[in-house]
């Protein structure tokens, strides 16, 4: 077993995490890799502290590594070892069998990361040798010296910073008191004389409402535009998917939640689907979801594509999405046809059949030699109305946003993830 005792002098907790991972490699490779991911997370935080780089709570391991890479202090091979451990953690989500050999390779990566971190700390004369040291991850909003973040000083320090504002406030109160005193004296002096004439000002009436338009019989009237209202499909009741391979809003795995992503766009809403390779008996398999509509809608809108968080190759088969209304399987309102992982269809609008109570989503997957594809229906939403509006339907928990420019995607498109996981089997 790899010896991590050299880390105990500076970081006893980090050494303990590595030792636990080493003991688990042969017994439970998946748990060992999980412990090694924890080690790498700590190591990245320690390196950021060492380089005096401030950061906020909640940043991902990927963002930490990108920041370390930008400093230019971390060798490429060390960054590659960080990446190897992170990818191994993602790959174990899609495997039924544990891989002892992969865990051994990752343990060697962790050992080399520890050696580099220890050597780098010696060069910098860092850190203080504290048995209870933990990486500093600051709460939001408290700016530390040098652009970092801290938990803030004592009350006396904060009060010292507020002294100028306290004196300004006191000065303002004195001025107001003098002004009030002057007004009182003026009024008292004028009470013996004739009462001043107060002019009566009649306010100009304003029109605050749109006047009603009255038309004579036979007059052509242009109908007003009905604002679009929408509701995300993941807020509705969905049945089906007996292999438990569909997800609402994001992928939920043992290692954590992953947001749906198509290309360089991440989504807060949508449906994720895939068919495990083990459920496909011949060349292809199908699954259906039935989305129960809780109101009258006239169209469905979404983006379609393979999830960009995962790493695909030519051997990952093909997929097809079809949509129907109610139990009608003869006329599809949408059909993507059979495509590979490179296919995307963005900004799709499909008209629903009038009076439809159910939207049926059918996924067909053709397995390849390396697995199947995780398919994303980003911002999948049901819409009614004929114009462009921002009002969400009554009872919807959606934030107000135009149906043609939904708020499901996070602001402007974010960069594609630098480190990707392997696709599902």
Secondary structure elements and pairings:
Blueprint: H1 12-24, H2 29-50, H3 61-71, H4 76-91, H5 100-124, H6 155-189, E1 229-232, E2 237-240, E3 246-248, E4 250-253, E5 256-259, E6 261-262, E7 265-266, E8 270-273, E9 284-292, E10 299-306, E11 310-311, E12 318-325, E13 334-335, E14 344-351, E15 358-366, E16 375-384, E17 421-422
Helix pairs in contact: 1-2, 2-3, 2-4, 2-5, 3-4, 4-5
Question: In brief, what are we looking at here?
Answer:
With 425 residues, the chain is an alpha+beta fold. Helices cover 29% and strands 20% of the residues.
* Helix/strand structural class: alpha+beta
CATH topology of the largest domain: Jelly Rolls
- The rounded distance between the terminal residues' Cα atoms is 31 Å
Tally of discrete structural domains: 2
pLDDT average, as an integer?
75
CATH superfamily grouping of the largest domain:
NPCBM/NEW2 domain
CATH architecture annotation of the largest domain = Sandwich
Given this structure, which CATH class of the largest domain is correct? Mainly Beta
Q: Helix amount, in percent?
A: 25-40%
Number of strands: 17
- Uncertain parts: 137-161, 207-215, 388-422
């Amino acid at each position: 077993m790899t010896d991590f005792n050299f880390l105990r002098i500076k970081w006893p907790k980090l050494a303990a995490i590595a030792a636990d991972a080493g003991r688990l490699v042969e017994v439970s490779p998946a748990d060992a890799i999980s412990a090694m991911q924890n080690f790498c997370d700590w190591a990245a935080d320690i390196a950021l502290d060492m380089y005096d780089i401030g950061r906020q709570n909640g940043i991902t391991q990927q963002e930490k590594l990108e920041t370390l890479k930008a400093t230019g202090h971390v060798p490429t091979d060390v960054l590659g070892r960080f990446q190897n451990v992170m990818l191994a953690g993602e790959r174990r989500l899609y495997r039924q069998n544990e891989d002892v050999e992969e865990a051994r390779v990752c343990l060697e990566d962790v050992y080399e990361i520890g050696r580099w971190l220890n050597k780098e700390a010696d060069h910098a004369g860092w850190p203080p040798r504290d048995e209870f040291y933990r990486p500093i991850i600051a709460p939001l909003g408290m700016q530390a010296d040098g652009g970092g973040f801290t938990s803030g000083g004592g009350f006396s320090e904060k009060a010292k910073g507020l002294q100028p504002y306290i004196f300004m406030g006191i000065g303002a109160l004195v001025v107001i008191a003098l002004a009030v005193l002057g007004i009182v004296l003026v009024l008292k002096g004028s009470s013996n004389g004739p009462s001043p004439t107060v002019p009566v000002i009649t306010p100009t009436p304003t029109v605050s409402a749109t006047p009603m338009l009255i038309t004579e019989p036979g007059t052509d009237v242009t109908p007003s535009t009905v604002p679009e209202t929408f509701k995300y499909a993941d807020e509705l009741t969905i049945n089906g998917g007996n292999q438990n391979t569909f997800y609402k809003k994001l992928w939920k795995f043992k290692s954590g939640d992953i947001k749906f992503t198509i290309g360089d766009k991440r989504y807060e809403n949508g449906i994720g689907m895939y068919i495990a390779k083990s459920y496909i008996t011949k060349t292809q398999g199908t699954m259906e979801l039935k989305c129960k509509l809780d109101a009258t809608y006239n169209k469905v809108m979404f983006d379609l594509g393979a999830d960009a968080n995962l790493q695909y190759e030519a051997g990952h088969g093909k997929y097809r999405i079809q949509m129907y209304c109610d139990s009608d399987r003869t006329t599809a309102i949408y059909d993507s046809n059979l495509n590979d992982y490179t296919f995307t269809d963005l900004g799709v609008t499909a008209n629903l059949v009038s009076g439809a109570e159910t939207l049926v989503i059918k996924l067909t997957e053709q397995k390849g030699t390396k697995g199947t594809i995780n398919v994303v229906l980003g911002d999948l939403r049901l819409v009614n109305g004929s114009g462009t509006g921002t009002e969400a339907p009554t009872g919807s928990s959606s934030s107000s946003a135009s149906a043609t420019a939904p708020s499901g995607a996070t602001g402007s498109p974010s960069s594609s993830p630098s480190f990707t996981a392997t696709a599902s089997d």
